[in-house]
Amino acid sequence: MLSVKHITKRYGTQSVLRGIALDVAQGEFISLLGPSGCGKTTLLRILCGIETPDSGSIHLRGQDITALEASQRRFGVVFQSYALFPNLSVAANVAYGLQGMKRAQQHSRALEMLDLVGLADQAHKYPSQLSGGQQQRVALARALAPQPPLLLLDEPLSALDAQVRVSLRGEIRRLQKQLGITTLMVTHDQDEALSMSDRVVVMHKGQIEQTGTPQQLYSRPASEFVAGFVGKMNLMPALVVGRNRARVGTQDLHCDIEAFKTGSPLLLGLRPEAIGLRPFVVDAEPGPSASLNSLRAEVLETVFLGPCTLLRLHCEALGGLIIEAELPSSDDATLPVWLQGQVLMELPAMSIRGLAQPLSTLRAA
């Protein structure tokens, strides 16, 4: 439905976008995720026609629209700042983009869209009389009213309170599915991207670092950057010493590294919630279930986070690395007595991923 081909953009000597290529299917919800300055908003502005690329092209249903002005593309755009007209009523704001219709049709369509976002009873009010969440719903209704081929969302929830953001996430996704409208959203919030998107495009320094479903990005990040930006991940410099076996510090670990050759350096990644903990018994004989991935560690700190508790663990065998683990909170939110001092740390082999890209930490080592 939408094809972005090798888009580049520079401001003076600064390269903002470098060869961006992306295909979007009809009805997809795609998030452009990345930190400030990665180029995601510039890409969105190029898509809606506000900015012009230095090279590359944009095709909508096979038609080259690169040279078309924003008004000719007729995309729906929702900005972070709402951009509502303060002197117009809510209904008039929604009807503003419906030029060419008779006034009665405009009003009818505006009320239809306000009903869709749950604000039909607020049609007579002015933006200043609404909450931030309600204003953003009006902005969304206005963008959808002309039935655009593409909806572009530029950090639509970042100006809202946390509780309102969570509620509006589900509402935007429900509307997008109900209308079947192809949507691209810019966000720096990983929770928004993971919970709302069919696919997530992670951007870093003007390039696409990885594209995939939320599940793919979380379970199999392709680089150190993605591993650190999407969720939390323990990163461990290692050396491949055999088939699905790598050495970290002085310890060999079984891990999921089928594609890596023996003798090659790599970075291992392990999510905190995948780690198991059990009591450490001094002088106990190793049981039949003992493995390379069962290691002694010292609990340095525990941090209560509500649904879970974060533990920071020092493991001498892993070269003195600090490993973070997360345990679900108990009904009374207390920790077992044995979770202090020495514990046994279980690192599940199938949860330890090898990150494919060359890493600065390994080159430095």
Automatic annotation (TrEMBL):
<protein>
    <submittedName>
        <fullName>ATP-binding cassette domain-containing protein</fullName>
    </submittedName>
</protein>
<dbReference type="InterPro" id="IPR003593">
    <property type="entry name" value="AAA+_ATPase"/>
</dbReference>
<dbReference type="InterPro" id="IPR008995">
    <property type="entry name" value="Mo/tungstate-bd_C_term_dom"/>
</dbReference>
<dbReference type="InterPro" id="IPR003439">
    <property type="entry name" value="ABC_transporter-like_ATP-bd"/>
</dbReference>
<keyword id="KW-0067">ATP-binding</keyword>
<keyword id="KW-1003">Cell membrane</keyword>
<keyword id="KW-0547">Nucleotide-binding</keyword>
<dbReference type="InterPro" id="IPR027417">
    <property type="entry name" value="P-loop_NTPase"/>
</dbReference>
<keyword id="KW-1278">Translocase</keyword>
<dbReference type="InterPro" id="IPR050093">
    <property type="entry name" value="ABC_SmlMolc_Importer"/>
</dbReference>
<keyword id="KW-0813">Transport</keyword>
<dbReference type="GO" id="GO:0005524">
    <property type="term" value="F:ATP binding"/>
</dbReference>
<keyword id="KW-0472">Membrane</keyword>
<dbReference type="InterPro" id="IPR017871">
    <property type="entry name" value="ABC_transporter-like_CS"/>
</dbReference>
<dbReference type="Pfam" id="PF00005">
    <property type="entry name" value="ABC_tran"/>
</dbReference>
<keyword id="KW-0997">Cell inner membrane</keyword>
<feature type="domain" description="ABC transporter">
    <location>
        <begin position="2"/>
        <end position="230"/>
    </location>
</feature>
